[in-house]
Amino acid sequence: MTPPPGRALGPGSSWRIPALVVVCALALVLSGCGGDRAPSESGKLAAVINPVKNPFFATMRDGLVAAAKQHTARISIRAALALQDSAGQASALESLIAKGATCYIVNPIDQFNLIPPLAGVAAPIVNIDSPVDPGAARASGVRITTYIGTDNVAAGRLAAEAMADRVSTRARVAVIAGIPGDAGSMARAKGFVDGARGRFKVIGPVAADFDRKQAHDAAVELIRGPDRIDGIFAVNDEMALGAVDAARGLGEIRDVAVIGMDGIPEALAAVRDGELLATVAQYPFTMAQLGVEACLAANQGKTIPPTIRPPIQLVTQRNVVHAQRKLPRPVEPFEDPLASLLAG
Known about the structure:
By secondary structure, this protein is α/β, with parallel strands linked by helices. The chain has twelve helices and 13 strands.
């Protein structure tokens, strides 16, 4: 997320240490929770992620733990309490760096908040999901080994294609975006607008801070507005579900097509029940798995691609049951681009 101009990392720009969700400590040997092999010292990893109260990041945490266990690595994971806790997340990373690790996996709250603690880190840095700003990182001497994240523009286009299959060329479709300035939100909205061109008219975007209640309220205003809307694209599933709540409450659930993004379990259930038209699923479990593999390959001296794209896949009523069965893994086959590096 790009902070608004002039925004500091937190109140007074201080790195306060808030209560953090400590998911797994470095002292815990994950292989000891079910495996017999000793952990590899080349796999002493540390990760800091977004709040796990969001099911997307809870699944990301699970993927980190599962991949570390699979490869007999040790990992310490900390999650901030809230999407606004950029300074606290930076403090958590600073404390992990003080303890030392062979590789760091970072899922920043915004594009800038983790750059100060990463300055001077010599170990590989794997950036997953939300990107670290490349220019600001270079200016601070921070070298990101690889970025593993969704092509959000392509995801937005995929949502637009699904919407175009449902609505007419005269339709008006609103976009509900996340936190203003957030890079992923902007890219998804851009992809949707690009994909909608010549197919239907796009309204907005309206910001709802990735929050279900705010998205509900925004959708109520949009549906009740003087100019009818025929659809809503929300840039994440939590907000899409808020829009579904609004449409249901207003008796418009069959008339306003809603598409989300992420593929969280509740969204898949809504697709199955016909309330959510579709979700563009991304796979935080797979993204996290790739993050661990990239760290281990980097620690072995392997050359890692600078950008790795995890899968995005459209889930509709046609394939939703299969998608539910496959969770947390992709509904369609996905070739792991790092498997051969680790095997070699």
